[in-house]
Amino acid sequence: MYMKPNLEIFREKVGKILYHEMDEAVEKSIEILEKEFFPHVKIKKAEKLIVVGDLHGDLDSLLTIIEKSDFISNKNSTILFLGDYGDRGLYQVETYFTILTLKILLKGRTILLRGNHEIFNGYETIPHDFPRSLLKSFGYHKAQELYEKFRKLWDLLPYSTSYNKIFFVHGGLPINIESKEQIIKPDDEIILQFLWNDPMEENGYKENVYRNLGYTFGPDITKKFIEITGFEKIVRGHEVCDGFKENHEGRILTVFSTKVYNNKKAGFLIIENGKEKRIML
Ligand SMILES: [Mn+2]
What we know:
Largest sheet: 6 strands, mixed
Number of strands: 14
Order of helices and strands: HHEEHEHEHHEEHHEEEHEEEEE
Low-confidence stretches: none
Radius of gyration: 18 Å
Shape: globular
Distance between the termini: 29 Å
Mean pLDDT: 96
Strand content: 15-25%
Number of domains: 1
CATH class: Alpha Beta
CATH topology: Purple Acid Phosphatase, chain A, domain 2
Strand order of the largest sheet: 1-5-6-10-12-11
Bound molecules: manganese (II) ion
């Protein structure tokens, strides 16, 4: 393990990450996350918050964000990943290796939320080719061992976080929130919706037929959530768009940080001194 995360090393390691290096990264991350685990994490003292949406194995976008945001050298910055690290892209192993190294070396400044691709309660995503990318890198038996450890690691990732009046989650707002307590200690049904839900522009909710799981939720549900919790805005990932998308009169902001989808652009968000900066890659 390196003393300081070095972007050039992450680039040079493409295709060359050894089993024991990956295994060590996963084991150490589990150790840290076990001590930290809480379903909802409050970000307290970040002067600059860097928000990264879905990555899906897009190492290049990840390293570009780390570089452009000056995350490593700016000690007053925190990086928040909104989940969906593996599946789809060509560099899933490298992407995990990078974010886990950040978690290990800069743990207080690195937050990894859980996305729906960090399989929850056996609800598999389509695609789920992460096991195959482990297999390609490490061979059958070692890939299986590593995958078991990843499942353990995913169970230790928080479902949501907040920073001042902003609430962050991978998918969306549950349709049945009645108290703030349900956010701090969500049950399995709420967690599932945090990971899978999407906003829609008409009031009410519908079954999320596009995803086959969870719901789409309307502006009335967002309004109610804001009234109950006191948050003013929700930032999430999960949905394919050109970097950013607004719903519910700007109360919901989607951030999308991967270029693995054809013709889609990627972006990331910086929140500094109460101001939001949207940056395209
Ligand atoms: Mn997702």
